[in-house]
């Protein structure tokens, strides 16, 4: 299998959208309820740049997952803290795609001069918790019952990695 991580392009948006909409429809990894449109995903895509990159991983020329960093908080004192997001196509889960993407994102975030990465993970998403802990993230706290999806209240846990 040929694997390649690169900066996402506008042409990747439909493939990223497919992965994200699958997560919306079938998981609590995102608290969005309604699937996004191409237009909505293009608007989301416009926030990424050289300071806030969006990466995709191709496996045999198929987008298997994506990872990005975004501003954690708009207040000035948070400018060197970012939030990461990571989504993997279900057909590629358990094959190291998430780990490679997160490792790449951590290295890139460090090179960009950021100090801390925050991951906000839904309680019960054990695979994401395990991956982040394996790569050095530490538990920082939980907010209980803050999102309601699939008929249940969901909590979120904060994990952080000080670079």
TrEMBL record:
Pfam family of the protein (one): Acetyltransf_1
Molecular function as annotated in GO: acyltransferase activity, transferring groups other than amino-acyl groups
InterPro entries assigned: Acyl_CoA_acyltransferase, GNAT_dom
Domain N-acetyltransferase: 3-163
Gene3D superfamilies: 3.40.630.30
Official protein name in the record: N-acetyltransferase
Domain of life: Bacteria
CDD domains on file: NAT_SF (cd04301)
PANTHER family recorded: N-ACETYLTRANSFERASE (PTHR43072), RIBOSOMAL-PROTEIN-ALANINE ACETYLTRANSFERASE (PTHR43072:SF36)
PROSITE patterns the record matches: GNAT
